[in-house]
Design a protein that fits this description.
There is one protein chain. By secondary structure, the protein is mainly beta. About 5% of the residues lie in helices and about 50% in strands. The chain has five helices and 29 strands. The strands form five sheets. It has an 18-stranded antiparallel beta barrel. Strands 12-15-16 form a three-stranded antiparallel beta sheet. Strands 5-6 form a two-stranded antiparallel ribbon. The chain is globular, with a radius of gyration of 24 Å. The protein starts with a helix and ends with a strand.
Length: about 525
């Protein structure tokens, strides 16, 4: 099974003069790029793969049964904060690129769709595309700045790898095509003597999932919005890095704007609104100015587009040269009330222990997730209805990830933010929005080493949902999910890893799902002799 990948990859380096696959032990070689190949097979019971097999994998695993093949080529910026596998010194000018393709054959899930001629609902079987391009990007770096374009997997900054997922931009959904510019790593702020560093970037892109939305929508109620643009930006400050006590504080901001809004009522399309995108809309997506004209709301006090974000804080204590204990908070916001922290205890409250070595337990994460306050139960703005004479306003019912015009902060049905909030892909009734964002629960995860070649990982979560502020659940919906996995770095074949995991869900939220997953992965660094 391994030979299908190892033989062609070694032929690549053998057929190109000057290339070789073994990492150099000295300065006689230059690292060019990495090639990764993998085969994953999963099987189980239920409508979907279990929560922990499905989430935080960039949307690659969804169906109950399937086999997937991946091939990726990647060259990160040398010396950058996020991608520095070989700890090479940063260059004044550098470039990077990456591409990843995926082929899969999976089971299907039935979604309801309204048949207008018959006036009845019918079940339509849906599965992910058999072949898909998951990543395709290129970029350049000059000194401390970088510019990248394309689809590239995102790296959250403040949350640990074993966490439940970043509230704004996690590893849960597939990448969105976008152009990003910003710092390649944290930069010292002048006159702070290295005590304060800054990092930030901004990107603009366009969702490419319109075909997915059209094929999964029920065309009976609610709405569908296609051709949507997005903006994402973040800024962080590191304080006293490398010292016994250190911290990171920052903010994230994301926007959906533009697109075509189709509204349906009992199977009839009763409204179509086009929102053409002009240059000023890109500015307003970053600076959410209040007020202005809109085909939807006229001259009212509103913010154009779907805005959301988070306040992020992380405090670290270095126990010794290797061990670190961190506490962190991600506080979500959808409007000014959330920015002003009028949403109570809403957020991800976590603690993380890192050993920095390879002991029996190398990392432990414990999180309490609460998204139930949402700035209060009611939302009212004077301009919501033209004939209203009510002067006051209430800025509650934040309805995290949802918006009156946009299907939600999701891509190809998977939440772009935290997967702890049930993604729309689970809505087999063809409803495209989030149905369970008023949720509270716990997430616990740990990993460690049985031996130098054997690594283990375990995760557990429990949550209760009260629906959404606009559509509260009649009864509470609960879920318990667990996962146990092991990874073996095969000693006789360098860079070949075999991993497997078992997971299950039980409860009303995700249903009863059980499944196992096996992955064989091979990595090949390619160098060139100088």
């Amino acid at each position: 099974m391994a030979s299908r990948f190892t033989i062609p990859l070694f032929l690549l380096s053998a057929c190109i003069p000057g290339l070789h696959a073994q990492p150099a032990e000295n300065n006689d070689s230059t690292h060019l790029f990495d090639i990764h190949a993998a085969v994953t097979a999963n099987a189980g019971t239920g409508n979907f793969a279990p929560y922990y097999n499905m989430s935080e994998h960039y949307g690659k695993i969804q169906q109950t049964n399937g086999i997937q093949g991946f091939i990726e080529i990647n060259r990160p910026f040398l010396g950058s904060y996020f991608h520095n596998s070989y700890k090479a010194p940063a260059k004044r000018f550098d470039y990077g690129f990456g591409a990843e393709a995926m082929a899969e054959y999976t089971s299907s899930t039935d979604y309801l769709k309204y048949n207008a001629p018959t006036g009845e609902f019918e079940k339509i079987s849906r599965h992910p595309g058999r072949i898909s391009l998951r990543q395709l990007w290129a970029g350049v770096k000059w000194r401390s700045l970088h510019l990248t374009a394309g689809m590239r997997e995102h790296t959250p900054l403040c949350t640990p790898t074993l966490g439940s997922g970043d509230l704004v931009y996690s590893r849960n959904a597939r990448p969105i095509p976008q152009v990003r510019i910003g710092f390649a790593d944290f930069q010292d702020i002048p006159f702070t003597n290295g005590w304060v560093q800054i990092f930030g970037d901004i990107s603009y892109g366009r969702f490419a999932d319109s075909d997915y939305l059209e094929s999964h929508y029920n065309y009976y109620n609610s709405f569908i919005t296609t051709g949507v643009y997005m903006q994402y930006s973040r800024i962080y400050f590191n304080i006293a890095q490398g010292r016994r006590f250190s911290g990171t504080i920052g903010m994230q901001h994301a926007t959906q704007f533009g697109g075509t809004w189709h509204q349906y009522r009992q199977g009839e399309e009763w409204s179509v609104i086009h929102n053409p995108v002009h240059f000023k809309d890109f500015i307003n997506a970053f600076f959410p100015w209040s007020g202005g004209s809109s085909q939807v709301q006229g001259e009212t006090d509103y913010f154009n587009g779907n805005h959301l974000g988070s306040w992020d804080l992380r405090l670290n204590y270095a126990i010794d040269d290797a061990k670190t204990l961190s506490v962190y908070l991600q506080s979500p916001w959808e409007d000014g009330s959330g920015i002003g922290k009028l949403n109570g205890f809403d957020g991800v409250w976590g603690i993380c222990y890192l050993s920095g070595t390879q002991p029996a337990v190398s990392q432990i994460v414990v999180e309490y997730v609460d998204l139930t306050n949402q700035s209060g139960p009611s939302h009212w703005a004077p301009g919501d209805y033209d004939d209203s004479d009510i002067p006051g306003q209430a800025t509650g019912a934040d309805d995290y990830y949802n918006n009156y015009m946009y299907d939600g902060w999701a891509n190809y049905g998977m939440a772009i933010g935290s997967p702890f909030v049930k993604s729309p892909v689970y809505n087999t009734d063809g409803y495209l929005r989030f149905t369970d964002n008023r949720v509270r629960g716990f997430h616990i995860a740990a990993e460690g080493y049985i031996s130098k070649a054997l690594q283990w990982q375990a995760m557990f979560s429990f949550r209760t949902s009260w629906g959404t502020p606009m559509l509260p659940a009649i009864e509470k919906r609960r879920d318990t999910s667990m996962m146990a996995g092991i990874s073996w770095a095969i000693p006789k074949v360098k860079r070949l890893t075999l991993s497997g995991q078992l997971a299950f869900d039980t409860g009303e939220l995700y249903g009863d799902n059980f499944g196992g997953m096996l992955t064989l992965r091979y990595s090949l660094p390619v160098f060139r002799k100088k």
